[in-house]
Automatic annotation (TrEMBL):
Residues 5-59 form the HTH cro/C1-type domain. One of its GO terms (molecular function) is DNA binding. The lineage of its organism: Bacteria, Pseudomonadati, Pseudomonadota, Alphaproteobacteria, Caulobacterales. Gene3D superfamilies: lambda repressor-like DNA-binding domains. This is Transcriptional regulator. InterPro entries: Cro/C1-type_HTH (IPR001387), Lambda_DNA-bd_dom_sf (IPR010982). Keywords: DNA-binding.
C-alpha cells in the first residue's frame, strides 16, 4: 500500500522514533509502514490520520 507518511513526518520535523512513539508502535514498525511493507490496522490508520489531521484516504492509497 502506498502512503505519504515520510512526507507528512518530515513536514512536522518528526524523527521516525518520535513518529513511532506518537502512534504507539516500534520504530521498526514505523519504518515498515513508511516503506509500504506493512499495512496498518484500521485502528492504527485512524491514529495516524488524527496525528496528521488528515483523512485516512489522503494518507494511504491502494
Amino acid at each position: 500500500m502506498r502512503n505519504s507518511l515520510r512526507v507528512l513526518r518530515a513536514e512536522r520535523a518528526l524523527s521516525q522514533a518520535d513518529f513511532a512513539a506518537l502512534i504507539g508502535v516500534t520504530r521498526q514498525t514505523a519504518n515498515a509502514l513508511e516503506k509500504g511493507r506493512f499495512d496498518p490496522s484500521l485502528q492504527l490508520a485512524l491514529r495516524i490520520a488524527r496525528l496528521f489531521e488528515r483523512p485516512v484516504e489522503t494518507i494511504f492509497q491502494a
